[in-house]
Amino acid sequence: ALWASAGAAGLLVAALGLPLLLLVIRGESLPFPVIGGRAQWEAALTRMVEWSNTGGDTATTGDGYMVVAIVLGLGVLAPLLAPAITTRDLAAARRAGGASIGWSAGIAVVIAVTMAVSTLAYERALVGKRPEAVPAFMLDAARAGGVALCGARADTLAGARAACAATPGFTGVLRAGDLAATGDFLLQGLPALRGFGRAFSGLASAGLTAVALALAAAGFHAFATALGHDAFYRVSDSSAMTSRRLAVTRLLLVAGVVGCGLVLQYASPDPRVLIGLAIALCASAIAPLLALALWPRAESAHATIALLVGLAAAALAIVLHGGVPNLDVYARAAAIAAGASLLSGIATSFLRQADPASHAGAFVHSVLHGETEVLRPDKGA
Q1: Are 17 and 110 in contact (CB under 8 A)?
Q2: Distance (Å, rounded) from C-alpha 269 to C-alpha 274?
Q3: Least confident of 2-6, 76-80, 203-207, 308-312
Q4: Per-residue H/E/C for 281-327
Q5: N or C: which end of the chain has fewer CB within 10 A?
Q6: CA-to-CA distance for 174 and 128, rounded, in angstroms?
Q7: CB-CB contact of 320 with 333 (8 Å)
Q8: Measuring CA to CA, which residue among 255, 367, 279, 359 is closest to residue 327?
Q9: Is 99 within 8 Å of 9 (Cβ atoms)?
Q10: pLDDT band for position 300 (cuts 50, 70, 90)
Q11: Dihedral, CA of residue 25, residue 28, residue 31 and residue 37, to nearest 10
């Protein structure tokens, strides 16, 4: 899974970087503060912010909850990924950390520049033109929800003309304010907007598809491992043979894939809402338990109470909101549930006298002072 993710990231960088490289070879300046035109970057950024607010998802007081929820959700990944990225020594860890930061920064820059170039190209292609001159690929993108003309997802020339005619102040040609685009279109649409051909468009789609498949595979593997190995071997039967655990893990992996396929066959959930739900679950159920693992007084009973309180608080916050929950609702529920769960775990730990010789105290002491092997080796492998 790790090598597949690395390959998918490399394909995505190549798909997005090659069009930018061609622009540099042509002598064009890329819109980015450090490596190109700062004025172009600011113009593209301003336009993207306006487009992001077109759908009504403007900034609200819930942004603070969103930040807290994302921090808690990402913090859960650290102990889960640590066994897969453990290095041999400190020097190797520093090299790996530097390389990962460098690659992450590079991918972020490529994505940002690609979206900025697409924004300027999209605006240049349509501003001052009549709605009848909209290219066919943009109508296809509007049909898929990627662009909007005059506030409407018009997928025909007649629909675009009618939507713009109903817009106040429209004089027959498109204005900058009549346009809008999603991040998906800006990320994948650069080859078509700059006329690089279908091969580059297909390469960009392949790169994003590869990343999506790698992330999906990682999620399925984590699900199957958590239930087939950790819950089965660590909790249920520590003497189970490796072949038996492997068979259960693979069965759960297949069941997870089939189950998700059946759900997607009859429903089309918003990926952003699913991501928000995942972050809410991590922040309300897993993050408090990780924090309690470093609290010497906390025992298994206190962790169980904290888990139940966190899930109940998250469910209550979502139910009290009413209606269909969105990203802001999940973020608010995650922040509230995480606080309630952690406080309940700490509070209940004071209901009984602390045992200096408890396993929890010994574990925390080992983590903080590095005197013992904290991770127990898998005896069944």
Answers
A1: yes
A2: 7
A3: 76-80
A4: HHHHHHHHHHHHCCCCCCCHHHHHHHHHHHHHHHHHHHHHHCCCCCH
A5: C
A6: 5
A7: no
A8: 279
A9: no
A10: confident
A11: 120
Query: Which tokens in the block code for residue 85?
Result: 């990225």
SS3 call for 148: strand
Q: What global pTM score does this model have?
A: 0.64
Which pair of structure tokens corresponds to residue 55? 């759908």
Report the candidate in 36, 59, 201, 55 with the shortest Cα–Cα distance to residue 120. Answer: 36
Beta-carbon count within 10 A of 366 CB: 13
- Contacts of residue 94, Cβ cutoff 8 Å, sequence gap at least 6: none
First to last CA, the chain: 19
What burial letters (b/e) apply to 257-271, b meaning 16+ CB within 10 Å? eeeeeeeeeeeeeee
Please name the residues in contact with 346: beta carbons below 8 A apart, sequence gap of 6 or more. 292, 295, 297, 298
CA-CA distances (angstroms) from residue 234 to 218, 240, 242, 377? Answer: 21, 10, 12, 11
**Distance (Å) of CA 251 to CA 133, 241, 311:** 54, 16, 28
Range with the lowest mean pLDDT among 181-190, 280-289, 343-352?
280-289
Strand partners, 277: none
Contact 291, 305 (CB under 8 A): no
